Amino acid sequence: MVRDNTNTTGQPPKFKVLTRANIDKSPEWQRLPEEIQESVKTVSAVLPFRVNQYVLDELIDWSNVPDDPMFQLTFPQRGMLSDKHYTTMRRLIREDAEKAEIEEAANRIRLELNPHPAGQMTHNVPTVDGEELPGVQHKYRETTLFFPSSGQTCHAYCTFCFRWAQFVGMNDLKFAAKEASQLRCYLEHHPEVTDVLITGGDPMVMKAKIFAAIVDEIIKVETVRTVRIGTKSVAYWPQRFVTDNDADDILKQFERIIQAGKHVAVMGHYNHPVELSTPVAEECVRRIRSTGANIRMQSPIIRHINDDAGSWAELWRRGTQLGCIPYYMFVERDTGAQRYFELPLVRCWEIFREAYQRVPGTARTVRGPSMSCFPGKCHVLGVTEVGGQKAFMLEYLQARDPSLVRQPFFAKYDPTATWYDDLKPLTKSDEKFFSYPEETPASTVGLTVDRADAYAEKN
C-alpha cells in the first residue's frame, strides 16, 4: 500500500510536548488568569500533566476557558484535590519548599487517591510458579492486558485517567514489561485467552520497530484471535498514523497482524466530538481502517467534559459516519480525581438513554453506562420497580466469574450513588452479584521462573 506522509506544506508537523516544567513558556499560558495558573501548578504537583501543541492549537477553545471541555480534559483543575490536600501543596509551592519535601507530600496524597482500583495490583497480575509476571494483567478469562515498558507515557494526559499512577514517578505503582517473550509463554499456556490488549500509558508512543517486536511474539500464538490496541493517540496526536516518520510502518504492523489471521481492534479513546473535528483526525481514521483494522470508540462519562446527551449523540453519529464503532460509555472510576468528575449513576443512565434515542441503529452498538469494578463490567440497565421498591436493574457484561455474565440483578435505588461500592443488593438472591471472589483468571503457569526465562530465550 502506497501512502503519502506529507501535509499540505510538504513537511510533517513536529510533536511538541508541554508539561508542568515548561507550560509557562507557551503563549496560551499567558492568557490564563493568575488563579488558574496557580491551580494548574498546584494540582499538577500531585497528578500528572502533559499536553501537546496540537491539542492547544486545534482542540481547545480558548475563548471558553476554563469551561471548555478539552481544557478541562487536559489541564488540572482546582477541584481535583480536596481542600486539605490543595492547601498543603499550595503552601509548599508558595514557600518554595525543597523539591524532595514537595514530592514527599505529593506521594502521601497520591496513596490516598486509590491509585490502583478494582484489584489491579492484588488480583489481576498473573504469576509463574508464584512469581508475578511484570507488565501483564489477566482479569477476564478471554482477555489479557500487556503493558510494554516503552509505552508508559501518552501524547497528552487525560485529567480523569484511571491509570494516572503510571505517570507520577512512583515505581511501585507502575505496570511495565521490558519484553514480550514471557507474555507469549503465558499465552501459550492459557489457550482460553483469545484477546490481547496492548495498553499503557499508550502503546502508540512507541516507535514502529519496538511495536513490531511485540507483534512478532503475539502473532506466533495460534489461540490469540484479536489484538486490541488501547490508544488516545487517535484524538490527541492523530499525526501518529498520518505524518509521523514511521506512520506507514505502524500501519504495516496492523496489516501484518491481519495477514497472520487475527483481527486488529484499535480501542480509540474519544471523549468529546471535537476530537473528530479536524482533517488530520479524519485522515487518521481513514488510514487505520485502510489496513483492515477497526476502530472502537470508548470513553467514560465525565462531569465538566461530556455530561450531556448532545455531546455523546454527536460523537457516536460522527464516529459512525467515519466508520468507527461506538463501543462503551464507562462510569468514571473510583480513583484519582474521581470526586471532581463523577456523576450519580442515575444521571449517567439518563444521559446514555437520551443520547441513545438520538442515534440510528448503526450507532447503537454502544453499551453503557458500565462500571469497571472489582467483580467485572457492571452495566446499569436502568431504574425500575421490584415488589413496590425502586431499584437499579444491573448486569455484568464481563466478569471474573463468567457464569454471572448477562444475568439481571437488582440493587437498592440510591439517587446519590456514583459507583458500584455505593450500591446494596435489593434482595438476598442479589447478594452473590456483590461478592468479591478470590479466584481469578490470573492463575499460575506450570513453569518455574527459571524455566520460563529459558523458554523465552529459546523461543
Give the gist of this structure:
It contains 15 helices and 16 strands.
Describe the structure.
The protein starts with 16 loop residues before the first strand and ends with a helix. The protein folds into three domains: 22-111, no CATH class; 119-292, Alpha-Beta Barrel (TIM Barrel); 299-440, no CATH class. An eleven-stranded mixed beta sheet has the order 5-6-7-8-9-10-11-12-13-14-15. The chain has a three-stranded mixed beta sheet with strand order 4-3-16, with no helix packed on it. A two-stranded antiparallel sheet has the order 1-2. The longest helix is centred in the last third of the chain and has 14 residues, at 309-322. The protein has 459 residues and is an alpha/beta fold. It is built from 15 helices and 16 strands. The protein has helices at residues 27-30, 34-43, 53-59, 69-74, 83-94, 99-111, 181-188, 208-218, 233-236, 247-259, 279-289, 309-322, 338-341, 345-357, 449-458, and strands spanning 17-19, 50-52, 127-128, 131-132, 136-140, 143-146, 195-198, 226-231, 263-269, 294-301, 325-331, 367-372, 376-386, 389-399, 409-412, 444-445. Helix 8 (208-218) packs parallel to helix 10 and helix 12 crosses helix 14.
